[in-house]
Amino acid sequence: MKIMVIDGDFMVTKDLMYAHLNRVFSFPKYFGSNLDALWDVLNESSEPTVVEFTHVNAVIEHLGKYGEKLVSIFHQLDEENEFYTVNFYPGEIKANK
Hints:
This protein has helices at about 15-25, 35-40, 55-80, and strands at about 1-5, 50-55, 85-90. The chain has a single domain (about 1-90), classed as 2-Layer Sandwich (Barnase, Chain D). Helices cover about 45% and strands about 20% of the residues. The protein is an alpha/beta fold. The protein starts with a strand and ends in a 9-residue tail after the last strand. Pfam families: Barstar. This is Ribonuclease inhibitor. Belongs to the barstar family.
């Protein structure tokens, strides 16, 4: 199982958002850097994957409606794709003590 960590603090602009997502997921060269392409490429995976999406509030704060659409895509991925589990955190992930 893969564990991927998305940090919303890195998503200050759309370009930085896609650069961060590309670092996390290693998208293929043909990736189109738009939300439809993101949905398509994420759904190509058939490997069990946990996505830890931190600083979700920062994404929405920085990117507004576009950030809301991005978060919505990951909610939809969690609900509709059996290979993904997506956890959302308004801030950082707290380590268990």
